[in-house]
Amino acid sequence: MSARLIVARQLDFPAAAVFPALIGLASQSRWIVATTLAEVPGGPRPPYPGAQMIARTGFGPVALRDTMRITEFSPPRRWAVEHIGRVVRGTGVFGVLPGNGRAGAESAGGCRVYWTEEMLLPFGALGRLGWLMLRPLVRAGIGLSLRRLERGLCDGTLPAAQDSPDYRAATSLDRGRPERNGAGASW
Fold first, then answer.
1. CA distance 70 to 110
2. Among 39, 69, 90, 125, which residue's CB has the most CB atoms within a 10 Å radius?
3. Are 39 and 45 spatial neighbours (Cβ–Cβ below 8 Å)?
4. What angle do the packed helices 15-23 and 124-155 form, to 10 degrees?
């Protein structure tokens, strides 16, 4: 059985300015609650499809390890991953819609950011029961993360410009595999 969760937030930034903070692993580690992300060496680099990364979410010794593979990179609108770990499986999407996210609303200014998770629930009936208890906490955590994203964009601690170096490199006409910089962590 799968479970789907969508959380969205209206921001007073243009869509193209918000996207860099969504795709950068260092940026994500600053705004996603209790989460640190690292690239898995040996393949394409994030944010490119095929790249893999690991998220460690939790507090102290109590943490969940989530291995992901990037499946879609469509700047400045959408970035998708497949959760490929032992426990966390499914898909996740970060998206940015111009205006208020409705058709024809691009002139309204700002954008609507959404985060979608579609998870395959493990452990049968026990997993479904666990999700009933965890869903409100996960929703609250994602909501808090999106508020932290907005705060970071407002105070300048997150990249909020389409011309940031990471964004330029990821969206350049030369979509070849960029050089590795040795970034990453191991857990």
1. 26
2. 39
3. yes
4. 120
User: Which tens digits make up the pLDDT trace of 85-130?
Assistant: 998 999 999 999 998 766 555 555 799 999 999 999 999 999 999 9
Note the CATH architecture for domain 2-171.
Answer: 2-Layer Sandwich (3.30)
Predicted structure pTM score: 0.83
Measured CA distances, 30 to 56, 60, 160 (Å): 13, 17, 14
Q: How far apart are CA 40 and CA 187, in angstroms?
A: 11
Quick one: CA dihedral 169, 170, 174, 175, positive or negative?
positive
For the chain, the domains span: 2-171
pLDDT tens-digit readout, 79-91: 999 999 998 999 9
Return d(Cα 118, Cα 113) in angstroms, integer: 17
